[in-house]
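ugh ok fine here u go
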Amino acid sequence: MDDYISEKEQIEQVRQWLSENGRSILAGLGLGLALVVGLWYWRPYRDGQLASASEVYSQLLTAVDNRERDKALELAAKLDGFWRTPYATQASLALARLYMEADEPEPAAEQLQKVISAGRDDVLVEIARIRLAKVRLYQKQADAALTVLGNDSGTKFAPLYHEVRGDALLALGRGDEARSEYEQALATLEPGVVDRSVLEMKLNDIAPASPSTAAESGS
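structure:
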């Protein structure tokens, strides 16, 4: 009899707990089901978006290569609708190249700054930063180029950072610092990133350090 009462009490406790928490359980089950269904629909949608964006981006690159400015701008505008894909950011890099080939550095700089400000892809941001620094150098704004580069890169782009920083310092007449940057570029060089012969040529073109400077660096 005691066992029966104990079991009855347990059933009542379960009933009471379900009464108090049943809605939360049902809501949780509903949310889980909604997430499963959502993912089931989302993945095909995402894949379709990527495929569509890839096709538009391919057309954009062709337009840029053919210097079809109006068509390139139209396709880039289409890619703005695919902002969840990496192609929208890459479109800005392509447009920057189009503008530079047309000798329009400021619109190119705007496109590159757009990539940097978005910050959606670390690799693309580094590429945009290096290219923007080169644009500023083309505009004879060496100080601005140094500001754009900021801190050193810890990635495979490190040699490019050092090279462009060396170019900027050399433009400012700071040859010894430029030499140091070129040397660091050579020290961190990986195959296929920077042309070693170009770096060595830049380094050789810098006048040797003066005896006083060499003595200071050695002390």
